[in-house]
Predict the 3D structure of the following.
Amino acid sequence: MASDKRSYHYIGRFAPSPSGPLHDGSLVAAMASYLDARAHKGQWLLRIEDIDAPRTIAGADKTIMAQLSCLGMQWDAPPVWQSHRLDRYRTVFEQLKARQLVYGCACTRRQLTGGAYPGTCSRGLAAGQQARAWRLRVPAGVVRFVDLWQGPQSQDVAAEVGDFIIKRADGLWAYQFVVVIDDADQGVTDIVRGMDLLNSTARQRVLAQLLGARAPRTMHVPLLLDEAGQKLSKQNHAPPLDHGNAVAALEKAWKHLGFPLLPRIESVSEFWAQAVPRWAARFNI
Ligand SMILES: [Zn+2]
């Protein structure tokens, strides 16, 4: 594995779902990915993850882009919308299907008791059964990787998760599936995102390997929790960022990432000018 960080061209990304405006919690993830990209003198891409149409709120993508601009976070290439890439996802799905790496699953929610999928439908469906969802055939073996924030990780995906869904019963592509295709197609080398996605990483690495893609390095940063210890999210109605005070919002996220307050910051550009070298020093970039 290449350890010389200058030996490849860094491409990072921020990939919000447009289910509402940015809030303090999503800003932490956005900030960490932006700092890491800038510290590596790499590219920072913006991907709008609007694949989950029922949760998408019209105009939230534009709001998020306006918020990022206001916070001084500029993406380096035109944003990508997942909803524009459905043909691509279908093509990859058909390729996996032709390789017999996916199979139809007729199990109803009631039949699935939680825990690893036991492979009930992996040998084919009985006559008259209809595929509801489609699952990936997960190869045996333990997935190991080193997360740049959380340290060494391992997961036996076949045993602990089982063959997982890549096309859902409601016809939508699963998050795990599209994110791996997008990262591969955009040449993403480094994923910096919230800790809640650490558990998805092994599945994504399995998929990347089956697609012949190089798995990006990952860094999963701590989540901002509310007073009840829940992830701050649009689903539990986190208030949007205070537009009036971009610097204060940046400082709050910065503090959450464990850094001491920066002295005398009066503008967003000053914030980034001071924050990027501190991030680089902390991670020895
Ligand atoms: Zn099944």
Remarks:
- The mean pLDDT is 92.
- DSSP finds eight helices and ten strands in the chain.
- The chain has one domain: 8-282.
- Residues 24-39 form the longest helix (16 residues).
